[in-house]
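Dear V.,

Thank you for sending over the compound details. I've combined the ligand you provided, zinc ion, with the protein sequence from our construct and run the structure prediction for the complex. I'm sharing the raw inputs here so there's no ambiguity about protonation or stereochemistry in the SMILES, which I know was a concern on your side last time.
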Amino acid sequence: MHALTCPICNGLSGYANRECPFCGTPVGVHLPSRSLVVASEDGIEIEGRRWVRCSNRHSTGCNWMTPAELDDDILGLGSRCFAGSLVRGRPDADDTIALEKLRPASLDLRLLVYQLVDLGLPVEPYWRTDGGLAFDLLSSQTLGHPVTIGHANGVITIDLAETQDAYRERLRVNLGEPYRTMLGHFRHEVGHYYQHILVETGDGADRYLDTCRELFGDERAGYADAIERHYKFGAQADWRKSYISEYATMHPWEDFAECFAHYLHITGTIDTARESGLMLRADQVRFSMDRDLVPLESYADQPIERLLYDWKWLSTMFNRVNAAMGRRPLYPFDIPRPVVRKLGFVHKVIRESASRNTTGGLLIGPAPGR
Ligand SMILES: [Zn+2]
Ligand SMILES: [Zn+2]
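Below is the predicted structure of the protein with zinc ion bound, written out as structure tokens.
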């Protein structure tokens, strides 16, 4: 993830900040340039377009900017930012307990959308295209019935109850998972969406579907049977030899979504390290390393092996840092050879999609003629 800096003093800002922590300037995220701009009440003129603060500024603490002309009259969305406009379902206005949880979940959603746009993936909203991306952010606790986290035809459903550490941690332990976060849920579910639009349908089917089935298995296998089998018998004993997680063994769709999520974990974390100038120098580390490790600005033209080589060293270091704080590893996973190939496939699909997607995923305005 990028290091966002204050446009006035260049101080480092957190992703959720609405003010520079150093000079107090009101700041907002301008998505097309992936940077912070001054977020005054009247908005700011950028390349001939006026950008104003997102109307979710108070309700969810949003710090994104949005083009001023995208008001109620055009889309019926209010002057919500692009990430906010993807939220189709949210708790009722009087459900204050659930609304409180919307705030942290919305931040994770913005982190997701930022990264998708930054990778150049198409982010086509549901309000413009049938089957486009939408998020239903609901709470099982206040609705009083289960909210199944999942994806169907572009719509991603998230259970806001999982923003609570105690609730999520109990599930994590019960399910025997080494890692469970809200951002991880978003990254996994959006993986289902991209498998559907980039691999299984349209041009992608000719281009990728055979290889996808060879690597991940045939996605036409019965999904309901797969769930039942998984929760009854669990994964085969030697799953670690060919899967990134136990959950990935359940069905070819889950294997793809897990690998997609890991690709976002890995590239997002490497990028964060690089933006801080982090590198590992072979003549300075106290263990043997065959060369300096300098994270690249882009791995687009690199083979997956290069990305994963860098990640091996960086994640080892981050895991040791966490151990020094008495915490579980940052990245509690091993990547066996078959998963290298699966991640290589995800890398290829994302890079090729980005190079075809000349708008850079920034389809922010209404469709032409609307
Ligand atoms: Zn500042
Ligand atoms: Zn917003």
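A first observation: The longest strand covers residues 49-53.

Warm regards,
I. M.
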